[in-house]
Amino acid sequence: MVREKETTLYIGPQHPGITGNMMVKLKVQGDTVVSAATHVGYLHRAFEKLIERRNWIQAFTLLCRFCVPEPDPMELTYARAVEELDNREVPERAKYIRVIVMELARMQSFMLWYAGQSGSAGLYLTPQWSVGDRNYILDLFEDLTGGRIYHMYIWPGGVRRDLPEGWTDKTLRTMDYIEKRLDEYNKILFDNTIFQKRAQGVGIVPKDKAIEWGVVGPVLRGTGIKSDVRIDEPYEVYDKIDFDVPTQEGGDIWARALVRKEEVRQSIRIIRQAIADMPGGAYYNKVSNPMKWTVPAGQAWAKTESVRGEIGFHVTSDGGNKPYRVHVKGAAYTHGVTVLEKILPGQNIADVSFILNSLGVCPPEIER
Predict the structure, then answer these.
(1) N or C: which end of the chain has fewer CB within 10 A?
(2) What residues contact 6, with CB distance under 8 A and at least 6 apart?
(3) Sheet holding 32-40: strands in order across?
(4) End-to-end Cα spacing for the chain
(5) What is residue 3's predicted lDDT score, i.e. its pLDDT?
(6) Distance between CA atoms of 246 and 263, rounded to whole angstroms?
(7) pLDDT per residue as tens digits for the range 103-160
C-alpha cells in the first residue's frame, strides 16, 4: 500500500473562511488533516499594554478592537471592573439599557455567524440575507451611539447618553421583523440537507473534555452542559428577566448551530422584557472630569456572557489616572488554539473553515 505524502497547507489569513486575521497551518495527507497549528498576530495586537498607557476613559477606544464583531461586551466588562474599583453605583435605568445593548450585540453577531457558517458550506443565499438583516440592528446602534460597529457607549457609572425619542418603538419593530425572518432562515439553512450533512458529526468537542479545555458559551452548551454567566452569576438586571439557556447534546457543529439559533429568540425575548420594565430616571452616575479621573488603588475582576461565552477583565489600579494592569480572559484563546488544534486532526480539509466558524473565534483577543 502506497502511503500518501504529507503536505503542509496554510489557510488564511486572507481566506474568506477564516474568522479574521489568523492563519491555520495544516499538515495533511491527501485531504485529511494530520495536525493543525494556529498562528495569529497579523493585526490588532497588544491591546492590554496599550490600554495601560491611556487614562480610564480613553481605554474605551481600544476595548472595541478586542473583538470587532462584538465590541459591547468588552465595554461592559471593563466598565464593571472599574465601577468595582471606584465603588461607583449604576442607575437602574442604565442597567436596563445595558442589557438591551448587550442583547442587540448578541443578535447582530449571530447574524454574522449565520453568514460565516453557511458561506463556508457553500450556501451563499443565507449570508446575503443575514448581513442585510444585521444592518437593521446596526441602524439601532447608529441611532443610539452614532456608530454602527464601535460604540464607546457603556461607561463606568452608566451609559453615555439616554435613549433617543422613538428608539424603543423602532427596536420593538425590528425585533418583530427579525423574529419573522427566523422561520425563513430555518427553511434555507437548518432544513437544508447540505447543511445538515456537513454539520452533523463534524468538529465534535467531547463533553467529558469541554470543561478541561476551557470551553465556554454556545460551544459548551452544544455539549449539553448548561452554563451562562447571566444565570450563574447575574449582573445588571438579568436576574429580573425571564429567559431560557438552550443546550444541545452531541458537541458537533450541528449542536452548536441549534444552540445559536435558539439564542437569537431568547435575545428577542430579553429585549422586549427590558423595554417593558425599564424605569425612568438617571442614566449616568457622572464622573466630574473624565480626563482627570483617578481610581482608588486595588484589583477588580468582572465577567460577562458574550455571544462567544464568558469574558473576564482583571483590572489593577495604583490610584492614578490610568489602569496599572489590564488582563483579558476570553473564549478566543481556548477555542481558537486549544480546541481547534485538538479537534482538527482527522477532519477533511473542506471542513476546517466550517469548524473554525462554529467555534466563534476572534483573533485579536488571542494576540491581545
Answers:
(1) N
(2) 27, 28, 29, 34
(3) 6-11, 22-29, 32-40
(4) 47
(5) 65
(6) 7
(7) 999 999 999 888 888 888 888 889 899 999 999 999 999 999 999 988 999 999 999 9
Distance CA 314, CA 276 (A): 34
**152-172 pLDDT per residue, tens:** 999 999 999 999 999 999 999
Q: What angle do CA 356, 357, 362 make, to 5 degrees?
A: 85
Distance CA 92, CA 27 (A): 54
- Mean pLDDT comparison of 50-64, 81-95, 113-127, highest-scoring range: 81-95
CA distance 331 to 97: 25
Cβ contact 7:342 at 8 Å:
no
- Describe the chain by its helix, strand, coil percentages, rounded to 5: 50, 15, 35
Domains, the chain: 54-356 (1.10.645.10)
Residue 292, sorted as left (phi over 0), alpha (psi -120 to 50) or beta, turns out to be: alpha
Annotate 87-142 with DSSP letters as a single string. Answer: T----HHHHHHHHHHHHHHHHHHHHHHHHHHHHTTT--HHHHHHHHHHHHHHHHHH
Q: Which amino acid is at 69?
A: P
Q: Which residues contact 34 (CB under 8 A, 6 or more apart)?
A: 6, 26, 27, 28, 345
- Strands 154-155, 32-40: pairing is unpaired
Cell of 294: 483617578
For the entire predicted model, the pTM comes to 0.94
